[in-house]
Amino acid sequence: MNAIIFYLLSAAAVFSTLMAISRRELIHAVVYLVLSFFSLGLIFFMMGAPLIAALEVLIYAGAIMVLFLFIVMMLEMGAAKIPLTPFWKVWGPAVVIAAVILFSMSLLFLGTPQTPLSPMTAFISPRQFGQALYTKYYLAVEAASLLLLFALVGALYLGKRDNP
Amino acid sequence: MTLMDFHMLLPYILLSMGACLLLPAGAFMRRPDARTLNIMGAAIALAAGISAICIHPSQADIGNLLAFDAYDRFFTAAASFMACVSLLFASGYSARRPIGGEEFPSLALFAAFGMSLLASSTSLLGVFLGLESMSLSLYVMLAANKSDPLSGESGLKYLVIGAISTAFFAYGLALIYVDSGTLSLAGSIAALSGGAGTAKITGLGLAGWALLIVGLGFKTSLFPFHLWAPDVYQGGPAPAVGFLSTASKASVFAVFLKFTGAVGAPRAELSHVLWVMAALTMIFGNIAALTQNNIKRLLAYSSIAQMGYVLVALIAAPGSGEGAAIFYLVAYSAMELCAFGAISAFSGKDGELGDIRELRGAGFKYPARSAALSIALVSLAGLPPTAGFIGKFGIFYSALNSGYVWLSIIGILTAIVSVYYYLRVVVYLYMRGGEAEKAVAFPEADFPSGLALAALSVIVVYLGIFPGKLLNLVASLTRLTV
Question: Is A143 in the B-facing interface, judged by CB distances under 8 Å?
């Protein structure tokens, strides 16, 4: 059962990523990428990393993709010259992937105790994750936070307008 | 985290906190100007370099991330000193070319932080973080001149290539981690070498190492991954390009050296791959440089070729090869920085120094910086009595000792070819008459970059005549294992 869900989700992730990089319409690509992140999040959940799963959905599918959408809309690329295609042809694959994800999610979360979907490997609780991060890898966390700070500084420098 | 740890982390704290503190510094100064801020940055980098030399490590590593062996502290100090010199060049340069603000020196310090982390990390995680800190700062430093479209182009090209190489690198790290189950650099190299007590490496792990070499190859512009160099070098501000082509490559090679020095059984297979890369890098870089008229493109191809020579020494390791590689990295950094320092001294309001024909007769009007440029170029060509000669000699000596005769022959032949394009610039510098004296007006000399140029020229010549001290130091570094 586990294995079936895993392969379903993996197929969904690979397929939606392929769709994301091959769509001409940017908005469609972003939607497919969101689907890919959702499937990856569920795979992480199955592997016993609920925190990573939550972060994948919250940060990647949530924050970063919303940012992408904003940028795409702000840039006003103009309507791409794609021939009119039937509605189901444009949204069909996305709906199928979403259905697969929903189906797996309901199996994973609503599984009866008789058929427990045990984690495939070790189970890492958010507490353990945080402890490892801030005790074993505290220097790496510091370095990563500095890296993000200077990414921000660089972006600000390049983006700001010089007053003469 | 104890007080002792803080003491050992001092160079890192100086670099990172100095970079942070430099950002609001402009707000507290009555008249913040780029010159003062760059010199402040240079002073911080100098302090970090000196502290890296002076600390006495009381434990092997901190936080499973940073090591404090002499090898690691050597590269930390080197990156800091190179940042210091680049910022000295930038102090005058950024007053002439519009690179305003605190961001340039601050990012240079943070880049030096990343390079130190990269060179002295004991963990693959640290290697990745260091590589990213370094490249991220360099993207912005290359694009720092916002009034020059070429500078933006250079930054963008390096960003795209950097993103691709990071993707290779990160994927490689992930595969290595999956296979060996450890993030420790020594542990994963032991797994690759099939050391005692480690599981046999699978195809996944091997693919990971291959991707890792691709990522490192991009950063050091080795043969199949070198095409970004000319455009990036041509467009970027000269002090930033000098910093990129020396410090970043030296620290990436510091990781490369740890890898090739410690790897066991797969050495033979690895050296086949590196052999081909080194030979093609030397041949391609030197031949492409022959036809260049833009001095920065010329130096870009030359730096591709120079990295080929370092790779020859890496193949010849273990033994004398590592020492030769580190010595050559130091010599190369000094002469390349010297060349880019002279270029930034020649770059004024109207634009960067581009065509080498603009230099016609400059040797008589601007004797000091022309002398520095000539010394750098003669040394890059590998002629005595400069550091470049001793460095190349050491590399070919160790390659011949390890039985790489054909590689040495290719190296020596291409080095002879390279003499033509280096000396061509020197000839233009000291050429009289003709349609010359059309007098391209170069800017006035400024003290900080003059000082840095003088120091670098002295180092290049000193290392060429008395290389003993550095050779001994380098030999003591390479006795250490990872």
Answer: yes
